[in-house]
Design goal:
InterPro entries: GreA/GreB_C_sf, Rnk_N, Tscrpt_elong_fac_GreA/B_C, Tscrpt_elong_fac_GreA/B_fam. The chain is α/β, with parallel strands linked by helices and 137 residues long. It has three helices and seven strands; from the N terminus they run βααββββαββ. The chain has a five-stranded mixed sheet with strand order 5-4-3-7-6. It has a two-stranded parallel sheet with strand order 1-2.
């Protein structure tokens, strides 16, 4: 795998995700450990300072899978709001924690459930709560 790209997380997302980690047993939900690692390496900004091209919680982004060229629009959500058929990806899913904090143009390798890895490239952030003025969503 390549070096991990720099990521940016809002202080509100950081606080809410830290609370989620604290109340979710890592033994039952393996994604907790990956999310914790992502938060540890993140640059944290106030919501009002968040650049519009960064994937934050509840953001909708368009990504391309470099392995097959597939382009998908995904919304990064909390576990209770996940709905794969609607493109709503849980932050505790491997791809969810991998996308958190990425900016347009950045790419990240992430593991596939069947083994191996694929590379996702962020093509656009189509909607972001902070950019829409929803600073406490």
């Amino acid at each position: 795998m390549s070096t991990l790209p720099a990521i940016t997380v809002s202080s509100l997302d950081y606080a809410r995700l830290s609370a989620l980690i604290d109340r979710t047993p890592a033994k039952e939900v393996p994604g907790v450990t990956a999310l914790e690692a992502e938060l540890e390496r993140a640059d944290v900004l106030e919501p009002a300072e968040m650049p519009a091209g960064v994937i934050t919680m509840n953001s909708r982004a368009t990504v391309r899978d470099e392995a097959n060229g597939e382009v998908r629009t995904l919304t990064l959500v909390y576990p209770q709001d996940a709905d794969l058929a609607a493109g709503k990806i849980s932050i505790l899913a491997p791809v969810g924690s991998a996308l958190l904090g990425l900016s347009v143009g950045q790419a990240i390798d992430w593991p596939l459930p069947t083994g191996g890895t694929t590379r996702l490239v962020v093509l656009s952030v189509d909607w972001q709560p902070e950019a829409a003025g929803e600073l406490t969503l």
